[in-house]
Predict the structure.
Amino acid sequence: MTQSGYGNRQVSSWAFLVPFLLLFLAFLFVPMVYAFYSSLFINRMGQEVFVGFRNYLNAFQDAAFWGSVLNVIRYAVIQGVIMLVLSIALALLLDTRYARFKPFFRLVYFLPYAVPGVFASIMWGFLYSKPLDPLLQALHVDPLSSGALLYAIVNIATWEWAGYNMTLYIASLTGVSSEMYEAGVMDGCNEFQLAWYIKVPLLRPTIVMTIILSFIGSMQLFNEPFLLSALTPISQTFAPNLDIYSMAFGLTNLPYAATLSVILGAITIFISCVAMMVTRLIQGARSRRKHVALAVEV
Amino acid sequence: MKSRKAKFGVACSLAGAMSVALVGCTVGSANASSSASITAPKEVLTVGGLPLPKYTQKANITWWSWVPNAQTEVSIFEKYYPNIKVKLVDAGAGSTEYQKFSTVVQAGAGVPDVVMLEFDMMPQYINMGALADISQYVGNLKSKFTPWTWNQVSVGSKVYGIPEDTGPMGLFYQSSVFSKYHLSVPTTWSQFEQEALNFHKKDPKQYFAYFSNNDGQWMTGLLWQAGVTPFQGSGNNWKVDIDTPQAVKVFTMWQNLVKAGAVQNIAAGSPEWQKNINSGLYATAVGSAWYDSETLVPYDHNLTKHKWRAAIIPQWSPGNTMDGDWGGSVQAVTKVSKYPEAAAIFAAFINAAPVELTHDVAPAKDGGGGLFPAAIAGFNIPAFKAPNPALDNQPANVDIFEKESSRVNTKFQWSPWTSYVFNELQTEIEKAFTGKESVQQALANVQQQVVNYARSQGYNVTT
């Protein structure tokens, strides 16, 4: 009885996993394997010719591609820091006892996320057009000039995603038992101390998750520069995905596009793992310090 | 058809366009092949002076095109070839269409029989093996087309498409501004440069012209007009020579004018550019035969006030008569087409039969194709010769562009990596024009990148 009951449970858990696994295999795993396979060829006069890892050798010497990777890492760091600080600040503000019209503001901050990225980029493209905007003219700022472009895109992404991340933080804050805050207040915490010493530490797992998601998202940067390139010259090597897209669909060089995709995927996975390990190490070190501190007090 | 619309669209810089190839040595050999194909045992039907094979089987073909009012071309064709049914599909214009076309070619399904491509895309698709050699059906039509266009659709004796329209370049200018400031139309680029600097001093609020910094096809047109031939070759063997002294000279002039403030460095198609065209901010514009219908008519709503006119493009050496081409398309037959002969007949008929040309050259807003035809017979059609209301009633096709058409440098070839080249060119020229590097360095970088890329793809490249 127990045996077969256990077996049933295993069967049903697999049954629950099947839809996910099928989609995962069909839309992630198989395309990844196929991309890797394609990257071992070149297309020469209509013929696929096997070249082994030569595309990878070329890619490692492709300064433009690596320039685009560095550019997008720079973007990921700048955008990630600004957006996450802003999201945490908004979430903490809306979580205080003094905040009024909370549902309304939650909705307002979240709304930009509901605007599809393509529309957002087009809309911001017009807002960034200096001759159409008296404010920019008065300030002598041209967000679409080559020096300012990266920050212009940081701004679009922050506008779009800050509210979304804020919602994640609010959700994890709502899960916290109010007793914890009451205890803090009894001990004489003001709102700022409550936020800094209680809420932020509790948010840490969510923050780690959003850092990684935001980083992965940034590495995929595409829509904004793609659409803004109608308004201002943007090199295809501004971001790796633009480069890959123009290789695949502009030049019809699918093997090399596949090569660059595989490399970009590997970089993203590598950096995500490093980010996760670093956070674990930091957290581990903290909790060890805490134990030490407690032991000393005792 | 021009590519302008497509490019100005969102995806502009991406695909831009691509290129072409032509192959230079074709002139003699193509003649030989055309006589060979005439001997084909096909009965020839003559429709309004166009010798085409008779086609008695039934055929259903699909055609991708973005020419305005293309359905009318189909209706006219089906009257003469009732056995061939043509299904017209609007797969988007320019780069949008190329992306779809590349995808269906790779997938091997959903490939049209006839596809519209710009000249600069031809070598890429020829090298991909996407296009069929149709010389056995239409090789005899070579003499019906402006010579350089036939070079661009053929490799040796093989023919990969039928030229549709072209864009011989010219200088457009606002005659209202020119008479107000007593300017004369420049015939050399050094005059152009001098006038631009003087004009800017007289009226610092206006620009003498704009430099289209997001359009590698237009920049390449400037090189073509200057006699630069950056690519020569065919198949696997290419010579790449982009950073020539002449090319440096061309972009240095524009760089100086941008630096002096006399020319605006701007993304053509952007809202700012549209606004400036409409307000008449630019005294001149380097355009081509379709520029008035694709740019001035849609974006300048003050045509009667600005009084634009067209002129022969300025020359780099006084007394020369050299021109380049900017834009223009081909109707090509795909390799997987089940009815290559029917498709080839269709492509040839719609672009060279006089009954079609009358429709093709009529303005798009009057229901025509709005094309500057590649077929020489198109130049004799009354609608083609008529005064152009968009150009202050100047009969610009006869006055300017028919002449310019015969002056387009026939030695120029596109490469099989056009979109790569355009992207590099745009990126590096923008760096030069914003003071980050010299024009010389910019072009040397383009040269180096293009050569590296081509070699990495297994091409045999010399420099």
Observations:
- Confidence is low (pLDDT under 50) at residues 1-41 of chain B.
